[in-house]
């Protein structure tokens, strides 16, 4: 196949791709702006503050746009080529249909590399930068870190707190929703304190329940030994860079659900950069079956909706343990590779 023909198809695809990236960026920025414009006006945010906030969040928007613009570009390009009978002319000239598909993967390998760097090293810090920008708009300081659903088991005792917060960053933390089980009795209290120097929990207005007895209220403070170490809550996996996420998994810390989430997020960071290439091949094979521009637009919508359903559903399945995290991360790509194989078999 003449190299000129390949360059022509790639030029058409990349032109639509640039338009698609710009379109999806604008749509996402508009959505974010529409939900925050009231706050910007209420707190008299300057233009510079607003720009800083949205620039901080832009890496997250960019990653989605880089991926979603691929089927948009390929399908609309092939729809136009079909509508103008250019593909028919190519096939009549002896060009095998699939020869137009394989070159599409080349430029999107580079896009995948950009997505890999952005996902693993730039985008994880975007939420923190976004929040920091908004604290400046609100003229407040960031809230202290808090850990929800804290649980610690020691020989003969179980300690639970719905929330552990350390407002001043010192040795004493505040407890909310406290439950302690030890020696066959259960103690519950609405609040308490954790002194990490004395290694104790102190609770107020506690209720004590023993087997075969009615719960009784204890007016005096109750003190329990607690030898665990007060640590800041781990940030969500999406907000941790790839090297830090690898180190966190290697440490073996965290609950089973947190480790599943970390494993899924780390695996997805290697799977997602391949999505532009998979999309290019799948959309290219599908585009050869289109007949006009309208079919290209309809195929784009179906393509994106199908991927979006898989993309938002897999994290929930991995977090709940219903599916292995690695399989959940790779499944969208595997599904579209299967679709590509079926389309290629039909076109051969």
Automatic annotation (TrEMBL):
Protein name: Permease YjgP/YjgQ
Primary location group: membrane
Membrane protein topology class: Multi-pass membrane protein
Compartment list: Cell membrane
Residues forming coiled coils: none
Transmembrane segments: 16-41, 100-121, 297-314, 326-345
Gene Ontology CC annotation, any one: ATP-binding cassette (ABC) transporter complex
InterPro entries documented for this protein: LptG/LptF_permease
Record's keyword terms, sorted: Cell membrane, Membrane, Transmembrane, Transmembrane helix
A biological process term (GO) from this entry: lipopolysaccharide transport
Pfam families, per database record: LptF_LptG
């Amino acid at each position: 196949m003449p190299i000129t023909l390949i360059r022509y198809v790639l030029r058409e695809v990349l032109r639509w791709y640039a338009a698609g990236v710009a379109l999806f960026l604008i749509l996402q920025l508009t959505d974010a702006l529409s939900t925050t414009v009231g706050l910007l006006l209420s707190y008299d945010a300057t233009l510079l503050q607003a720009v800083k906030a949205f620039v901080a969040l832009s890496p997250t928007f960019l990653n989605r746009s880089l991926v979603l613009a691929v089927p948009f570009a390929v399908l609309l390009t092939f729809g136009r080529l079909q509508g103008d009978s250019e593909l028919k002319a190519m096939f009549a000239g002896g060009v095998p249909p699939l020869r137009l598909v394989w070159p599409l993967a080349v430029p999107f390998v580079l896009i995948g590399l950009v997505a890999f760097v952005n996902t693993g090293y730039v985008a994880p810090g975007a939420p923190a930068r976004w929040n920091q920008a908004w604290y400046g708009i609100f003229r407040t300081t960031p809230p202290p870190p808090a850990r929800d659903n804290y649980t610690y088991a020691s020989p003969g005792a179980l300690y639970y707190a719905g929330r552990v917060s350390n407002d001043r960053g010192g040795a004493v933390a505040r407890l909310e929703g406290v439950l302690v089980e030890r020696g066959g009795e259960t103690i519950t209290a609405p609040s308490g304190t954790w002194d990490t120097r004395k290694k104790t929990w102190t609770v107020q207005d506690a209720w004590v329940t023993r087997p075969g007895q009615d719960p009784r209220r204890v007016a005096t403070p109750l003190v329990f030994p607690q030898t665990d170490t007060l640590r800041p809550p781990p940030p969500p996996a999406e907000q941790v860079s790839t090297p830090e996420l690898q180190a966190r998994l290697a440490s073996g810390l965290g609950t089973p659900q947190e480790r599943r989430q970390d494993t899924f997020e780390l695996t997805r960071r290697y799977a997602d950069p391949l999505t532009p290439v998979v999309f290019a091949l799948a959309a290219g094979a599908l585009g050869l079956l289109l007949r006009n521009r309208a079919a290209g637009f309809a195929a784009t919508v179906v393509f994106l909706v199908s991927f979006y359903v898989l993309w938002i559903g897999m994290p929930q399945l991995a977090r709940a343990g219903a599916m292995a995290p690695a399989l959940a991360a790779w499944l969208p790509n595997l599904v579209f590779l299967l679709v590509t194989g079926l389309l290629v078999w039909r076109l051969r």
